[in-house]
Design brief:
The structure is a homotetramer of 295-residue chains. A six-stranded parallel beta sheet of chain A has the order 3-2-1-4-5-6, with helices on both faces. Chain A is of the alpha/beta class. In chain A, strand 8, helix 8 and strand 9 form a beta-alpha-beta unit. In chain A, helix 9 packs across helix 13. The first copy, chain A, folds into two domains: 162 residues, Rossmann fold; 124 residues, N-(1-d-carboxylethyl)-l-norvaline Dehydrogenase, domain 2. The first copy, chain A, is built from 13 helices and nine strands. At the C-D interface, strand 9, helix 9, helix 10, helix 11 and helix 12 of C face strand 9, helix 9, helix 10, helix 11 and helix 12 of D.
Chain lengths: 295, 295, 295, 295
């Protein structure tokens, strides 16, 4: 299939590589010339604008850092909607606020383009390995069209509802994740301070009502889970700055919906404090260090 | 075995019944005459004081509402330690602060009595069915002695470490549980307000990084889990007042240990606000109503 | 002086009236025809666009609801900057984020227009009475030019520093105000629950280290201050929705600056919960009702 | 007057010195022999127990670290109530929970002794200078008796209501103080991060609705108030550990009263985190450092 792929950052570039491997023809656009050259070497064609990339494509995929980029890549003078043909399916894989996702999709619909939002989880490792989870907001028809292509970049392709619900699913999950990780940190640090063995404590929690992914798979206490970032100095996982971005999207969406998120807001501030201390580049589970005596 | 069983409230009475069924002889003590008469009818003997109950028993078990009762039943003039024979094993199943558990065990040790703390989870339903979880703080020797008897009242008998660690395990788990339940409530209510189907959202969370017992087993949103209290008007589960008691133990233990528990403290206050509104008797998952428009 | 006045809502209309009374000629613009007609009856001239209003004015003043309006009124095709003459002083009195204030002023500067931000406090009462406080971010030269005109609409004209600092001063003050009001609410409600007379308690606080405007001037407990909204059913003061708007600006500015505001974020969520319960139209001091048994 | 003075720590010793200077005869008791000897050198008589000190005194004053000491000094076998004569007025100046204050006073009343609670503020400096504030819970009759003596140790003697209300007034004021100080810290740090001059910001807050003692008298930002601890490295004021003690009393009293204190609980945890970092000995306004980049 001829696919326009726009946005070739840490996530987009490996995703595009997987589509090339799967045999698709790619019209590529990014501001970074080096990555364009590299992907051209793998068979991709370089376009001069999102508009040009979209013009003769059968599917448009974008993967961008934030809502402002999505608006400009889709709605700008040289944007996707200036070039895309009526009836072409389209999907934005960026993590942005649900309202922008809906606004851009509404603009696309006005010119006969069905557009989905499909933010991912799984990180750069999952993007490279083709094991991402896609949370897709789309009509049933569009989902059926997108599913096989997304499955060439990911393992778990989930239909969340109409456009915008992909973003909603992602920010609600990550809101809970950000809270749970701090909850586990407080429980583990309290247990340690009171004198229980932390491996024993984790074992009890994991078979009881405190059980959660943040404890049984990604426990922040060093020595509990050998494959977790805590075992390697909190490197190489899901950075605290990325968690901050998602909590920012969640609390801002909540504000607009007049919906309180008390623990979510406190969690956001605690990661913010971590960022202020210069630890924003560490894995988000390093929040546990806020609960330990400095060494 | 001849066992002194002291404290026959909502939890203690069904636990004692299970021991009688298992063929033990029980010396019973409680201030409530009605429950004493009922258990005497099942074969138990009524004692006139904790001291008297302990005097000719081979094992002493207590199940009391709070630390003050534990101190008085064990250390009072007519208390267990005034009657118990040197070398008799003993276990307190109350949920209290770890320090009191250690203090009373130390007093017991001074007269040659090895004492464990073994708070339970599973509620009155688990007590009646004999499916409680016991979190046991005891030496390996004492644990080996207690294990078979506790197994006649519960299904999951966990050794947490030395005396006091049973209480620590319980309050750390419930600290996390109280936080997780509010985290799930915020995520579900936000998703609903933003327009995703709540069953779909729960499904995504349950197979993603937000996965936790509060979502996949006890989801607070009505209609998501048919067996959860949310499906029956938030009745019949783990009452908000009990969660408040456990969060109070956790934050107080944290205060004494100079250990911050930020989300735990906020969670405690949110359940406190629920209690102030007169909803303390509802299942603790009804905290989700704080995040929904009043009807 | 010939002044363009754009934005004639609840605040802008009475401010414009005071300028007309002071003898200025006003070029007026708003989307609301009724208010335009009314002010035309008082001597103002109706303009067809912000651009037209600005074209032959010696000073441009805007007073708009939010940042999006400020951007469009100043930067749009028919906006102020399309019509204003090089060298004309300008001031925006809206309460918006500091970054937008700086961005718009930078755009103005690029065409030789010195622009100030000057958000107000004092409410619609202060706007009508001409007793507003203006917090002005401007160069010393521009401040000297604006001061006499602002003084015809307000009593307290404060120079906060360069452009943007007016907004910063306002959101920092209101961040603290939102926190203090909840702090006073918690202290008063706790004192009442524990059994001290609330007037006595307020008196002690007001002469001690808890002293603050939220207690000594605007105490949320009914019966303590006769002139406070608490004495009249929490009507007619500073609405909770307005406090929410300002806390939203503060936490968003904090997020962008990587600056934690823990209590500020919790305060925002507590007013959000008040809004969810349908009480957003009440004075913000009605937050105290979150701490009282429902009646 | 012949006065029993029991408890001669950092606060009690200078208070007793002021009573000796005022010409009273003192029966002194403390466990610290050095301070007893020193005060004996100034004319005091050393007693061998609280009971002995109380036996021939016309007034009993105690000043102790915590509730456990108050219970034991008053109710113990060799305690005040074992020696005090029927009809002797009595006052405890310790800062403890209101319930213990009421319990001990009730025990005193049962043997014809009218007892007041009168916690102080003003610190060791105020104790030495005789400028303390006493918050007195007592009947009007007892207050009239105590007032002249307390006035020899303090400047501001406030009658708060019946016994227990002195403690309530103190913990409610300090709850608010602990919150306000963090509120000011967040506002000042945010303003600084956004680019306003902090002295200008403090000036605006101090003449606006954010005005409070924590800003206008004790501002935590260095360089704003020359006499505040911030100007001398956060030494010599009201230590964070003392604030933690008072917030612990407040949240525990709130828990017992089923009264939520959300911001108060978060404040307590933030000072707790400060204590964990080893900064508990600094003035409580050093909490502002939690909001600044580490240097």
């Amino acid at each position: 299939m001829k696919i326009a792929f726009i946005g070739l950052g840490n996530m987009g570039a490996p995703m595009a590589r997987n589509l090339l491997k799967a045999g698709h023809q790619l019209n590529l656009f990014d501001l970074n010339q080096a990555v364009l050259q590299e992907l051209a070497g793998l068979g991709g064609s370089i376009s001069t604008s999102p508009r040009a990339a979209a013009e003769d494509s059968e599917l448009v995929i974008t993967m961008l850092p934030a809502a402002a980029h999505v608006r400009s890549v889709w709605l700008g003078d040289d944007g996707v909607l200036a070039g895309i043909a009526h009836g072409t399916p389209a999907v934005d894989c960026s993590t942005i606020d649900p309202q922008t996702a809906r606004d851009v999709a509404a603009a696309a619909a006005r010119q006969g383009v069905a557009m989905a939002d499909a933010p991912v989880s799984g990180g750069t490792g999952g993007a490279a390995a083709g094991t991402l989870t896609f949370m897709v907001g789309a009509s049933a028809e569009l989902f059926a069209i997108l599913q096989p292509v997304l499955a060439q970049m990911g393992r778990n392709i989930v239909h969340c509802g109409e456009v915008g619900t992909g973003q909603i699913a992602k920010i609600c999950n990550n809101l809970l994740l950000g809270i749970s990780m701090i909850g586990v940190s407080e429980a583990m640090a309290l247990g340690d301070a009171l004198g229980i063995d932390t491996k024993v404590l984790a074992g009890i929690i994991n078979s009881s009502t405190g059980r959660c992914w943040s404890s049984d798979t990604y426990n922040p206490w060093p020595g509990v889970i050998e494959t977790a970032p805590a075992a390697r100095g909190y490197t190489g996982g899901f950075g605290a700055e990325l968690m901050l971005k998602d909590l920012g999207l969640a609390t801002e969406a909540a504000r607009q919906a007049h919906q309180p998120v008390v623990l979510g807001a406190v969690a956001q501030q605690l990661y913010q404090a971590m960022s202020l201390r210069g630890e924003g580049g560490m894995d988000f589970s390093a929040i546990v260090n806020s609960y330990r005596k400095p060494t």
